[in-house]
Fold these 4 entries.
Entry 1:
Amino acid sequence: RKLRGGLRMMHLVMAAALFLLAAARLPALRRKGSDTVFMAGVFAGMSALLGNIPVYFFIDGILGGINLGKLAMNSFMIVGLWYLRTAVVHAVSPAAGARSAWGRRLPLIITLVLQTLFFALTGPTSSTNTWGTDYHHLLPAALFSLMMIAFIAWSCGEIAWACFKFVPQMRRSFQLGFAMVGLGCIISVIVMAALATDALSSAFPPLSAISGSDIPFHMLEMLAIILVGVGLTIPAVAGRATRRKARLTRHVTIARVTPIRARVLQSANMERMLKTDSAASPDEQLHRMLVEIWDAELAAGPGNTALTAEERDYLLSVESSLDAEAAR
């Protein structure tokens, strides 16, 4: 009884961790209009929520009590892993997005189609939260489970390979985050290998000798999800802190450049030369101010500069910083 209660809580904890990951990506979703990590958190979170026994029986009962909830749970996990794989692999290796959209989605489509086919071939089933125990003696039911297991193993294997290949080239916060993601995926691959032999052992009894039935699957799954969730959150949080620092730096720079610009324009008997744009970003405002200063200096002629050597060096360094930001 304590074990069942613990497993129920573990699925809720996993769902909460995944929904928190999705929530952490809301700023990126609002900024870009789409975010694959957000989608991964939502779909995987719904799958973990369905893994909670009371939630599963409630939803499956609404769907007819024939384990359509199991099909939905597996499908949500597959789609969530697809988004996660896409997000991580493309983030650490931009060249991975060079293939056509159809080619990138083909593994996902094949897995979902085959999974649905094997579910249908299993025949009529009654709502259960122990699919393996009740139905894995039927080969289609075992193959149904194997589709998700194989997809998770493939996705996590590719994520782990990409993470550890490119981690040395990343910034420190990204190194820590993606190292955690890679470690979580390695744990997932090991768990999936054990689950695959366990799923097929009922249909093929000789596999029972190497079955991983004594492995604490749920504990390892939760550990993997926590590592991946925290690992993906670290770069997002670090990125927001970096952007806040950059905005603060720009506002401080504008405050320092503003009196220099006013004095230079006054010295050259010039007023504001560029039309004010209230919607301009701090970088655009700063760029406009620099253009006005250099134009005023040019109009003043040689030997009539209003800038000190220190101010000129500072403005050149600001201009160089803006150029570097634009080139990124």
Entry 2:
Amino acid sequence: INSITGNYLASPIAISGWIPEGEENPIDLTTSIGNFNFTTVFRDLDPLLRGSKFLPTGTGSLLLTLNGSKKLPEIAGTLDLADTTAGNAFVNAAHVDVSYSAGVVDLINVTAEAYEGSIEATGRINLLPANPTWQIDCTFANIDLAQYLDSNGYYAYEVNGPFSGTASGKGDFISQDSLQMDAEVKSSSGKYLSPFSSRFMNIAAGTSNPGKADESELTDYDDIQINLRVRESRINVDRLHFVSNDLQLEARGWIGFDHTLSGSGGFTIPLDKAKLHPKLRTVVALLPSSVNRVSLEFSIGGTLENVKINPKIGENFLKGVLDRAGDALNIPGNLF
């Protein structure tokens, strides 16, 4: 085939090369599809599928090379995407180098620009087992989490800052329990919805307050570190470290795929603000105003739809207050 050119679904297509007779003779065939539009590609689908948010939108181009033989074909491909959405994700641009040989698909190089940051990844899909498996390793840098949260309606606990980290995962395409993932996420500066803003306090009190937070309700944070593991249908938070002027937090726990959760930790906050908080004021009500900051411990349980938080004054902190104040401070022991 010297050259075949044409258009399909408004996209230019070119094919050249050869496919010889015989099962083991070498193949050399190149196919390119330029500037295709996902909406056009999927326009003939069943109407119920056509409106699915999981179908991608955007534009792209594809180059495929077929080598090897009919008996053992080898495929190499390059995919470029622009302004593409799939599900709740959006990328400004992406480039994918992929190959196939002997039942194995290798993601040789994946790069993307998304949410003001960048993503790089490699991976493999093994099609040989009866239940095909996959694995992936990726790094990401300066991802603006607020853009993702805003585009998906997560306004309640807004975080605005550049996030970087690494993630690796593996599993199969059938069993949910097969998913294993490890991730480390860091951010050294940004803003978040202050736990002492009126909006956050309304949320804590169970009062609905939809919509995006005002700039005046955000405050700076200095450090966030999160270490995650996914095992046996459970997201394990091995460490949640958070530092700002108003809040220092260390916590760990887990969230199940069935929406159950459990966790514990400790945090330090200014006493005057704790006395205004609907979930904390009864716990710290008897502490004297001479205490500038209070250390609290907490446990979390319930479900994502009904989170139950139980705060209490840290025993070591309260013991220190009692040691300093002596008999002049009378705090009931049942606070801790």
Entry 3:
Amino acid sequence: CVSQADDDTADPADDDDSADDDDSSLDPLPDGLPEHLVEYWTLCQQAPTIPSGTGYDGLLTDTHVHTNVAQDPVAFGVELLQEMNATGVDRVVVQSDHFAPLSSRLKLDLGWAELLPWCGRVDFLVGAFDPEDPEAPAYVTERLDAAPYAGVGELDILHVSGQMSADPAAAPLLQIYADLIERGLSVHLQASTDPLEPLWDAQVQVMADHPDLPFAWLGCNGIVLPDELSHVACTVVPELDSLLPPDPAAIERHYRRSLIGSDMAPLGFPSPASELLGWDSFAEAMLEARTMLGQRDLPEDVEYAYARGNFDRTWSRAVEHLRLLL
């Protein structure tokens, strides 16, 4: 299944048609589809419904959905697609809990590999490696050869909690970046956004040295990035004034690179961020994002960039990678 949006990313007006598509006749089950993935595949085939009267009336995306080893990938994926379809969300990127031990993240990398060939709307990132481990590049290569992952993440160059950090210029990590560029894939990372941090200059320089590698950087929406980082997008939680700053000039500065990132999971699958953000589910966060986009009377191109345009640009080569495999 390739996302319905994959063929119309250039025109915001096309979003209006997707909500009205007739899902009464889905494609026949593809050869080789495991029986326990039929519901997952079927939900992926359905066009998302854009809720009426909730704000922005186009398709949405989410770069920052979290899961953990206690959550079965198939059950998680089914519930996630149900919530995506009910709230008008076309594509998401899922990643493992980066606080979890490598052994737990390994189980998730392997578990999600089975789902990835059957739905182009739900991407997953390889995450079970230490960026400074000399064995990491071999592991990432093995995983990327095995299934159509969208890239790697969530990497912690300097986590906001201060509990985790990695050298942004570590040789194994640079080797992984080279592999991703060759495959046309992307990176999601959490790094310090404080220019006074010792790692700041190194992180900016590494990004600048890899202009052909799309980066999704969690939390960088509040800063003005150098011009040489035009390939870097900022993952933003859709709450309070984070997604849409009160100042119109700030929106003008940041809208071309802002990505919606809920940091949530579907209902029944606890997310560490749920208590902090005040949402019970991925669907609730997406409805909040839709409300926020719709209440500001933004130009159509600005709404579209936030909702889906920047996502398609950041993760677009993952779509092409999936097409080649299928």
Entry 4:
Amino acid sequence: SAACLLLATSTVRTDDLAPGFSPESTSVDLDKNHRRLRLLASARRNYLDSDVEAALAVARQALELDRELFGPADIRVAWRLRKLANYHLELEQPEEALRLARESAELIRATHDANTWQVEDAARFIEVTEAIAALPRSKRQRFLHAARQMEAADERHNLQLALAAAQYRAGVLLELFGDRHMSTVSELLTIEDRLIQMHDTDASRGQLHRLERLIPQISITPNPEYGSLFLTRAQLAENEGDDAAAERYYQQAIDILTASNLPFEENLPTAHNNYAVLLDNAGRFSDAVPHYKVAGETWARELDDTCWIYYRIQGNRVRVEQQSAFEAVDAHDWDQ
């Protein structure tokens, strides 16, 4: 569905998907949140259709709902301001982009300790925004268009095109910041993820080992990119048939992404879901159910119900819970 808001760096396993709509808290106005999700879906569709002005207008409406639902200082508001900043960059409005980037950083600094990955990341976003704004116009536009091209290619499952877009962006960031910078590392992880999906893993293993050592050296933990790295490693291990290593990496990804305390970190439900699929396929149905449930509750809050993932996951959770019930019947000692 074009309205699907899941923009995870790593692939969602769809061979056995599943969550149910079980909102975490009744304190959120569900009707208003539904409107917010529909607006975000519309903004994304406009963005992918290259109508950035329309995307910006709709995203501004979503920002107001973010403030009403979660409070004006919530980190969701700060991240929405970043999205608006990127739209303004594409519209050749660098001053407004930098203003929004700084407003976002001020919100983060007001609500987080100085020595946290969130504050560090906010400063880095300003740094990257300034650097991209200073690029020659043609190079800046190509860099920004590559992000949209990659997102659209992922939607069409065109991994080759998505890979090429990520490689271009990584090259620009390497020129600007070198390889010991988290913005560069993020794009390098995106490249490795696409290569693994394409089963081109010869170089991925060594690169992932290098990034695993590098990220704790250049970023405050628990940066969610570190969790994303272990999610990518889990996918590589599954491709190689090493389910024990995959299980270990999924657990590490879940631990780090949970500790990062980002309420909308899309790779967290992805990690729970893909780990559940691994357990499910191994016949460990009761172990899989809690992970399906966490994935489902998170996605239910952040996905418009027109998204295909919403329904695929719901059906799979029901199937797994039914299987667990059948196992309980089979295991019962009827002669007691």
